[in-house]
Amino acid sequence: MGFYFENHASMYARAGMQVEKTLETVVRRFIGQNPAHPPTYRAFNRHGILRGKDYRYAADFSRLYPDARLGQFVYAWAKIWSETESSIRFDVNCHSPLLIWRNGEQIFRSDIFQERYFKERAELNIALRAGWNHLVIRFKKTRGGFGAVFGTWLGKLPYYFVMPVPEREGQEGWLHTEPLDRDLASIPTEGTNLAATGVRWLPSLEWPAAQAKMGNFQRMFGTPAGACAVGWTRALFTQADGGTYTLSGSARAPLEIVVADKVVHSVAAAGPFSARVTVPFGLHDVMVRATCAGSDWGFELKIADPAGGALAFSSPCRIAGSSETWIHLGPIAPATAADLAALRDLNKLAPGAAGADVYWRLDLPDTWVRPYNDNALYGKWNYPLGVTLYGVLHAAKAVGSEDAQRYVANHLQFCCDTFRYAHWDKEQYGGATNVHHLLTSLDSLDDCGSAGSALLEVAKYFDLRGFRVIADIVADHISTKQIRLSDGTFFRKNLMHSFHEDTLWADDLYMSVPFLCRYYQLTGDAKYIDDAARQFLGFKRLLFLPDLKLMAHVYDFMRDMNTGIPWGRGNGWVVFSLSELLAVLPKDHALRPALLSMFRELCEGLLAQQDADGMWHQVINEHDSYIETSCTSMFAYAFARGVQQGLFAQPEPYVAAVFRAWSALNRNSIDHLGNVHGVCRGSEFSFQSEYYKKDLLWNLNDTHGIGIVLLAGVEVLKLTKFLQGAKA
């Protein structure tokens, strides 16, 4: 048996050293398991308990209920899904006494210390069963406060709760009661009927009586004279070859009814209307465009088929959390309202009539349409995905797959398209976004450099609309905002993730240098390549282990020392990134000799640690640690590039090491279905190797390794052609 699976199940057993076959199989597996689904669009109420900038929920009942009496209670209720039996880390700042129930069982009661030190987080590990899990929190008002902040322990790892009742299925947030004088008779959980609780739950689904009497556009948008608003739904028109349908309803202002981008009826004045229209067969967008005259405005619309049966409307974005079938946009300028096709791009904001951007909402109190990228990977922006997309792009190019290249481009185009919306979302709803949560809370190189590098790489081959906006923001963060030591070397400080405070990580050379290299190529400004070059010398000063000719993983400024542990992927990030830099660094650059010396030194140290089978290990110099796929791939990649660039005085040992590593990866790490095994998961750090060997274990198809495996294969192909050319 191989290390991770039976020998007969390996890629090598099926394809031997056919590099293109390995690349194609891994790429197809990745894309097949991560289809390009659009976001989930959820109803979202802007009133009540919202997630803030740290991605936790803030229940400030002192603000919501300033007249609440001492001793009164508020209950909050929500649910969260778990695919399997698992757990979530759940942090609470107790501003008042709390009780928490999970699926009807009490699991937490705050104590006086947690209530006294309300600025400190109380940590819970909440076990979840497979399926839905209902959480209920009871808050009690005291003189000390009324409420709590609770949820994820880290904004970089966000999760959210949804409403626990069928009529709001899929809407994010928590139901909560008004202040109560008595405890609930029973704790609500799965199957509880709201009415049976005997109390009112908020936020409300009903408009106040005065607003309910208004036209729908007035109650949502006010009465801005001259502005427009649009309503949008869909309907299936079932008559073959174009049937005649009856429109009926009422208008409170002039409006147009548009079906399948054709104006089928215009209403010149307020009042009831009826018309017969011909519409071709199919599922079509139905839109109503109205103009406000400074008074009440809005519409009601029905469509009947030739037999008199009412056509059923459906939400154009399959809205979760509401039964509403119409979504609405406004107030917008007439010129904006003229281009209905552009307005239907739900990745984009629309310019509002008063200047501020606007987005789609529902005809419910304080309720908007909100996109949530619930895909596991597609359309996401993070550092392991950055190197994954880089690898998929070049593997797809190597095997001639246009559709796989387009998949990568579409992924990053989605990131570009939603970037502006994400910042608007952050301002509108308290700070926690559901697309681009890293770029909207940017505080580290992890958040931007790797994915930004992939963005620039893909932009070399595809016309990515809007990519430069993101690229410039990433460049500005790295160059002017990222915390540095006095010599300009990057380190980690003032982070959302406090465990990383006052540290310097080998990983950060990949989180910065490849982007700086590509931004230098994009702009021609040498300051970016100069900065990239200087980083290696600063990192070497603090992390280099001269006896091993390897790099320690982390420097801890609290202890003023490095960890002394040569973690595999940490060294991989260094030598991988250094090979990228040397490929574009001008031959006459002042730091090139020092960087070339560093590259050779590290490669010498790494070559000495390759095992007899061709792999490298999780802790490079401790071969009782598991064989690790991502570092093996990165070392092979760097060696192959070094040979092709003429960086080695004696290239032959490195050529042999590349092909031994690629053979070993195909035998040990890549199975015949294209699954990638043995990739160490995302790390923290430790001063003992046991953490890396026993706690920091591997995942299947982890994005920290998929792209790197692909890039190694691409370089094996290039090296093969290079060597064949040299012999010819």
Helix content: 25-40%
The CATH class assignment of the largest domain is Mainly Alpha
Structural class: alpha+beta
Low confidence ranges? none
Number of strands: 31
- How would a textbook summarize the main sheet? 6 strands, antiparallel
C-alpha geometry: globular
CATH architecture of the largest domain: Alpha/alpha barrel
Beta-strand residue fraction: 15-25%
Mean pLDDT: 96
Strand order of the largest sheet: 7-6-9-4-11-12
Q: Tell me the radius of gyration.
A: 29 Å
Provide the CATH topology of the largest domain.
Answer: Glycosyltransferase
Please, how many helices? 20
Query: In the residues, how many domains can be counted?
Result: 3
Distance between the termini: 40 Å
Defining traits:
Jelly Rolls; six-stranded antiparallel beta sheet; alpha+beta
Characterization of the model:
This protein is an alpha+beta fold. The protein has 3 domains: 7-34 and 378-727, Glycosyltransferase (Alpha/alpha barrel); 42-202, Sandwich (Jelly Rolls), CATH 2.60.120; 209-371, Jelly Rolls, CATH 2.60.120. Helix content is 33%, strand content 22%. It contains 20 helices and 31 strands. It has a 6-stranded antiparallel beta sheet with strand order 7-6-9-4-11-12, with no helix packed on it. Strands 13, 15, 16, 18, 20 and 21 form a 6-stranded antiparallel beta sheet that branches. The protein has a 5-stranded antiparallel beta sheet with strand order 2-3-10-5-8. β6 and β7 form a beta hairpin. The radius of gyration is 29 Å and the shape is globular. The two termini are 40 Å apart. 47% of the residues are buried.
